[in-house]
Amino acid sequence: MRRLLCLLFFVLALPATAAGLLDSRPSSTLGSINNSADFLPVREAFQLSLVESTPQSIKLRFVATEGYYLYRHRFQFRTDPPDAGLGAAQLPKGEQKHDEYFGDVEVYHGILEVELPRTDQRAFTLVVTYQGCADKGLCYPPETERLSIDGSAGAPPAWSWRELALFFLAGIGLTFTPCVLPMLPILSGVVLRGQVGGLRGFNLSLAYVLPMAACFALLGALMGMFGAQLNLQARLQSAWVLVPFAMFFALFALAMFGVFELKLPHAISSRLDRIAGRTEGGSLWGAAVLGVVSSLLVSPCVSAPLAGALLYISASGDALGGGLKLFMLGLGMGAPLLLVATGGAAWLPKSGPWLVYVKNAIGVLLLGLAIGLLSRVLPGQITLLLIGLLAGGVGLFMGALEFVYKPPRKRLGQLLGMFLLFYALACWYGAFSGQTDLLNPIGQPRTVAGNEQPQNTSAWQTVSTPADLDRVLAEAKFSGTPLLLDWYADWCISCKVIEHKVLNDAKVVELLKGYRLIRFDITASNAEQRALLDRYKLFGPPALMFFGKDGVEHADVRVIGEINATDFAERVVKANDRI
């Protein structure tokens, strides 16, 4: 659903271009309020489904919920029996993520599709292992799922009623783009011959809208079939695809700015105009012909949003679903015409200067989308430079440096332009300084706090089996010693952060005097260890649990996810008050 919502926002001139550009580093402050309710169970955070199974290949889809991501290097695919023919998994390039302890890794946010080639048609069980983390700092142990595969399995429908409703809303949004809105009064005049209202107006407008939507449905069905054969989704991470599409969106952005006009070739447009001119208005047949012609006339005008819809449909590989989605898109585009036919032109906003502002805004968003696509193949510093150029250009266009008298509304725009210009300067400075973060382009040097000291690792006892943990818990209870239990794994980035920056803090070390310090190593993530997670109602590391002298956990001060030293010290103080 995440890709569909992004598509809807783009169609309505609100694309979320920045999401693909940011490096999601877990926040060290979120742990102060984290608890079990803050995180989803692993199979809700990461949803695996079998999209398609044919004698030639198997297609899987992973959906990481917003705020969660999967590691590329942690995927494993094997078969039961082991000799079942299965080729190497085709994984697209992931997002680069750097960690000071693990180095450079690749991760996936949102939707990921994986294709596995097959070399025979025997039925077998596909064993899929994956691992992911939450942006808040919780790392899940590796998860394994088993899928039954046979040669006759097919792909489930790649559409739902919710998706169809969203495409319908997207079509309504397309109607109010500057190139379509002025056509509505003209089309209503030709189709209805100036006679609006009543059952006749509704029938004529419906006869116009349905053929127009049918043309879009045919295009969607063809793209669904085309995408399934070409497997566009697996190739979208290639520079050979991303760069041309980025140029495509940049070209349409220039058209929005009025640099040139996009329209059909004269030979085609003149013929369509002649057909429309000879068509008799006021009849159902004439309305239907005009609907088909209008779909050809309007499509080039909204080609950029329509291209995004077609990309989404081609990725699904579903001809029926693609046809239904674009049919709903066409119905959405025709819905305002139905309102005009039944209620008159008073339903529609008047044309005016605001259309120019809408065109310019759409152009800026199209350029942002182009940069977003290029960010997947360009270094982070270059992306920051491009974002700075875009922000600076918009700021200058809004009059950031025009120090003359302006009316209040334009002064507000100038203030926003000055902010964008300042942000552009920050992006340029950060890019030349080696930064890549759009939200913090200047960055800040890492400082070593004066109260940090080398950790006394000998104070920590590491266990890795439930029996050993039960034993040390019983010993602490018998001796009346409070205990701190740290859940740790080598593959857990946030565990490393807590180990070096939190448990190593001088104040925390002082407050933990008198505690028995136990670290449970769940790196292996075997069945026994996973059962232990269920016993304590944990999803995975990191987690910190306080046990009193009586051996009972103080659940209200439990820490799940990453936390900073200051907030953790407050938890320790609260736990000490109960000892």
Automatic annotation (TrEMBL):
Enzyme class: oxidoreductase
Residue intervals of the Thioredoxin domain: 447-578
Molecular function in Gene Ontology: electron transfer activity; protein-disulfide reductase [NAD(P)H] activity
Reaction equation(s) it catalyzes: [protein]-dithiol + NAD(+) = [protein]-disulfide + NADH + H(+); [protein]-dithiol + NADP(+) = [protein]-disulfide + NADPH + H(+)
Keyword annotations: Cell inner membrane, Cell membrane, Cytochrome c-type biogenesis, Disulfide bond, Electron transport, Membrane, NAD, Oxidoreductase, Redox-active center, Signal, Transmembrane, Transmembrane helix, Transport
Phylogenetic classification of the source organism: Bacteria, Pseudomonadati, Pseudomonadota, Gammaproteobacteria, Pseudomonadales
Family: Belongs to the thioredoxin family. DsbD subfamily.
Descriptive protein name: Thiol:disulfide interchange protein DsbD
Cleavable signal peptide: 1-18
Disulfide bonds: 133-139, 179-301, 492-495
GO biological process, one term: cytochrome complex assembly
Gene that encodes it: dsbD
CDD domains named among the record's database cross-references: DsbDgamma
Matching NCBIfam families: PRK00293.1
UniProt-listed Pfam families: DsbD_N, DsbD_TM, Thioredoxin_7
Organism: Pseudomonas mandelii
Major localisation: membrane
Function summary: Required to facilitate the formation of correct disulfide bonds in some periplasmic proteins and for the assembly of the periplasmic c-type cytochromes. Acts by transferring electrons from cytoplasmic thioredoxin to the periplasm. This transfer involves a cascade of disulfide bond formation and reduction steps.
A cellular component annotation (GO) from this entry: plasma membrane
Subcellular location, record wording: Cell inner membrane
Membrane-related topology note: Multi-pass membrane protein
TM ranges: 164-192, 204-227, 239-262, 283-314, 326-348, 360-378, 384-405, 412-431
EC number in record: 1.8.1.8
UniProt cross-references to HAMAP family, sorted A to Z: DbsD
